[in-house]
Every structure is written in C-alpha cells, then in structure tokens.
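Q: What would this chain look like folded?
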Amino acid sequence: MTVSRLCGIAAIAAVLVGSATGAAAQSPAPPAPVTAVLVDLTIKPGVEAAALAEVMPDEVRDTVLAYLDGKIQQWFARADGRGVVFILNVHTVDEAAVVMNALPLGKAKLADFAYTPLTPLTPLRRLLAAPAKGDRR
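A: My prediction, written as structure tokens:
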C-alpha cells in the first residue's frame, strides 16, 4: 500500500472518528435512509447433503431470476462454505425477508438468515461541508 493511500485512509478515519465524538455537541443528524439490506444466509446445522442437493437446482434458478429482476444487487459465496451473502435492493428487513423466504432454501426452512440494513456512509458529509471562517484545517 502506498504512503499516499495510507494517508488518505487515515484522513477519512479521522473525519469519521471526529464526527462520532463531535456529534454530542451538535444537533443529531436525521437518520440515514436504508438503501439496501445485507443478508447472511447460512445452512442450518444438521441439514443433510441429500436435502440440499434436492433443493439446489431450484435455488440457483430462482436466485438468478431474483438477480435478473433487480431484487439482488450482489451475492458472494462465504469462504467457510456455509452459505452466501447477498446485498438486496430493498429498503427494510421485512422486504428482505420476503425475498429470501420466497427462495427454495427459505421455503424448505434449510437456511438461517441474518439481516443488516445498510445506509450511506453519512459521516462523509463532513468532508463536503465548508470549514467555518477562520478554521484553517
């Protein structure tokens, strides 16, 4: 990693930390909108390979269709081999659950889902704000 890249990362980190610590002195920012939901799909413990093999052809087809329909933005295999991570184009966990429970693994109750709402990285707004007069950052 180059020195300039490290300096850039350090500057962003300083702004993010500063915005978190200075937030108490400022009025609270409005909540950021949820723009996507991260879904961690793991296969339930004890699920037999035969049960998975029976469902997977339909799971793959339906997952690709959900991607082509714009419901799934991205998906990745978990390195531990226990499942998949999705980023869904939805605005609530409830919407994400509807998508995931409609897929064959969800219908067959062979998978567990953990949902994380995602928002824009709103502390970056501090980088865009003009410094106060006399502030020589």
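The longest strand covers residues 36-43.
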